[in-house]
Design brief:
The chain is α/β, with parallel strands linked by helices. The chain folds into two domains: 172 residues, 3-Layer(aba) Sandwich (Rossmann fold), CATH 3.40.50; 119 residues, N-(1-d-carboxylethyl)-l-norvaline Dehydrogenase, domain 2 (Orthogonal Bundle). Helices cover 44% and strands 13% of the residues. It has an eight-stranded mixed beta sheet. Helix 1 crosses helix 3. It is globular and about 60 Å long.
Amino acid sequence: MSKVVVIGTGTMGVGIAAGFLAYGANTVVLGRNETKARSIFAAIESCADAIDPSWQSKSGQLFAGSISDWSDWSGTDLVIETVSERLDLKRELFSELDQRVPPNVPIGSNSSGFPISEIAKDLKTANRMFNAHYFMPAHVVPLVEVVLGAQSDPNLAEQVCNFYRSHGKKPVLVKRDIPGFLANRIQHALMREALSLVQEGIATPDDIDTAVRYSFGFRYAAVGPMTQKEISGWEGMTLAAEVIYPSLSNITAPPPCVMDLVKAGKSGMAKGEGFRKWPPEEAARVKKNYDIRLKAAFEVLKLAPDQN
């Protein structure tokens, strides 16, 4: 039976722990103290129910402990930290893990902002340290980016990817810890163009959503962009690119249309307003529909298992 140690008790820690528990792994949650770690057990179990209602029949168990006191690393397959996004905090934690965790156990950081080369800088066992970057909600979104740092062992990273596959995830190996890794770079390239189109008055935010959801976004639940072009052929894409690429946005900072909103405290549903006003009832309805659609998309992804 596999064993995973998840460090941190926030939203990401809950989702990550649930993903392993649902696949039968013994899952250890470490918090500031054991009481804090146990306080998220109900949330973890609820998320595991959403993944697989029969998870309890798989014999995986939840355990709790204190980050500073935990010493039972026997049989551990993977350690993942999900603590607050502060470089000093992560470096301090990894320095401790460098000494405390047996050197054969891989250690991942869920950080999206700090490369593992910085987090693990000057540590003796940096070769077994990686970014293990999840996306919210972590228990639903299948992707995990396993990112190599300057000293990370590529062979061990492949083993980590295989471990994730055996626990229901879709890992990708990112061979260099460039800013944004893989998925966020692609996502931000799209957002740069979308926000530029809003800024220039070409389209409304609602029309951009519609254009993405009901054209290429709709297709991407079936195959990714590279395979889709393999299906349709690259000739048409390259001809269109010669015309489109020169006019694409190359701004190096978010445009005023979104920065002005952020500066005014209108950063989205949680604040009641973004590009539009969000009454609480409507925000709740949209979030509920979002969860339903995510789960439906997840079921689509499971219809025909393949290598893409």
